[in-house]
Amino acid sequence: MRRSLVGSGLVLIAALGISSVVMVIAGGGHAVVVTAEILVPIGVLALLVAQAAASGWLGPTTLHRRFGLGLGLALGQLLAALVIGAAVMFVSDHDALATIGLLVFAALIAARAAQLLSSGVERDIRNVRDGLQAVQRGDRQARVTASSSTELSDLATAANRMIGTLQSEERQRDAADNARRQVIAAVSHDLRTPLTSLRLLTQALDDDLVDAATARRYVQTMGTNVQTLSVLIDDLFELSRLDAGDFAWSTEAVALSELVRDTITSMSPAADAKCVSLGASIAPDLAPARANPDKLQRVLCNLLQNAIHHTPADGSVLVSAQAAEDTMEIEVADTGAGIDAQDAQRVFEPFYRAGSDASRSEAGSGLGLAIARAIVEAHGGRIWLAEAPHGTRVRFTLPLATG
Ligand SMILES: Nc1ncnc2c1ncn2[C@@H]1O[C@H](COP(=O)(O)OP(=O)(O)OP(=O)(O)O)[C@@H](O)[C@H]1O
Ligand SMILES: [Mg+2]
């Protein structure tokens, strides 16, 4: 407020200075004094009224009225100066009347011009207000337009950008909510199935309804259920830690050929049971990768488990690896049924199961590939499904130990 008053005072002094110079040229020192006596009170009054309007002392007002007030102050000053000037000094009545006539004409034209100018601004402000109210009611497609001035069009652009951001944030939140709901449904299902079985088996054993041989079979099934539950819980725990970035493992130079050989040896019984041949094609002098051996083995196990599971008898599973520039590319390829294109984007999501596995009637939770992806990404690599004429090819990269 004080700064604004000081500004108005400075403008008054500057205006008086300029008009005094003009008066000196026109009529000498006396004219300057008379002019100052007329102009100063008029100018002070006009500035005080403008100051009051700007500070809201006259109450809330429309833009239209503000434009009108500005115009009225400008013309009112001219008129007042002219009338007083005619009365006290230099202007003849005839000249004053003629000038007032001109002034009235100019005032009407200027009023219309101000009305035209303010109507564009008011229309744009209404557009912005209506657009924002539509957004508040939940319409995320609403967009605002303003073209009467650069400032208002900048305001409209900023408002549209904000609505766009809001829309995409809501979409992301909805997708995350949806994914969370699906995960909860999948976890509940995968926990409920073995738990229901455990409950029924315990009940049967408790009621002494079964003979010794059946009881032994029941206990074995209970063991399998407990194993399923503990694998699921371990996987969930591992995935949530990886997701939270909570991994404190160390990395070292890993010779791929040895690690793959060990993993294949441990998976061979499962492959043999399905009559699937399991092999590797890795050059013995392949450069070492930088990785945590246990975690890398976990990735390979998950991929081999999937490959063996989805490959029919007499099929084959092959692990290969090659180094390119500063990364190592490892592939697990099988001759199984493959993964449909519509599932290919989603199989790395937690709990997503493709094809006939989607019914969740078979063993597995859909966490294997999600865990593999989290481990690979934590190593700074990436994992994807490569093009395959038949079967499935999962590829992932790791940094080279020398890189
Ligand atoms: N080699 C493959 N061939 C065909 N389908 C596959 C293959 N690997 C994965 N899939 C599909 O991708 C889905 C997700 O695999 P993922 O390993 O994450 O889960 P899962 O094997 O079903 O369960 P889990 O690994 O938790 O025991 C599988 O359900 C399966 O439908
Ligand atoms: Mg799996």
CATH topology of the largest domain: Heat Shock Protein 90
User: Given this structure, which CATH class of the largest domain is correct?
Assistant: Alpha Beta
Instruction: Report the total helices.
Output: 10
The number of domains is: 3
Strand runs, count: 7
The CATH superfamily of the largest domain is known as Histidine kinase-like ATPase, C-terminal domain
In this entry the ligands are: adenosine-5'-triphosphate, magnesium ion
Q: What percent of residues adopt helix (DSSP H or I)?
A: 55-70%
User: What is the CATH architecture descriptor of the largest domain?
Assistant: 2-Layer Sandwich
Report strand order across the widest sheet: 2-4-5-7-6
Gyration radius (Cα, Å) is 42 Å
Which geometry do the CA atoms define?
elongated
How much of the residues is beta strand, in percent?
5-15%
How would you describe what is shown here?
The chain has 10 helices and 7 strands. The chain has 403 residues and is of the alpha+beta class. The chain has 3 domains: 2-136, no CATH class; 165-243, Helix Hairpins (Orthogonal Bundle), CATH 1.10.287.130; 252-399, Histidine kinase-like ATPase, C-terminal domain (Heat Shock Protein 90, 2-Layer Sandwich). Helix 1 (2-27) packs antiparallel against helix 2 (29-54), helix 7 (256-273) packs parallel to helix 8 (293-310) and helix 8 packs antiparallel against helix 10 (368-378). The longest helix has 57 residues, at 150-206. The model has no long low-confidence stretch (mean pLDDT 88). The structure holds adenosine-5'-triphosphate (ATP) and magnesium ion. Adenosine-5'-triphosphate binds at residues 302, 306-307, 310, 334, 336-337, 339, 347, 352-355, 357, 364-370, 392.
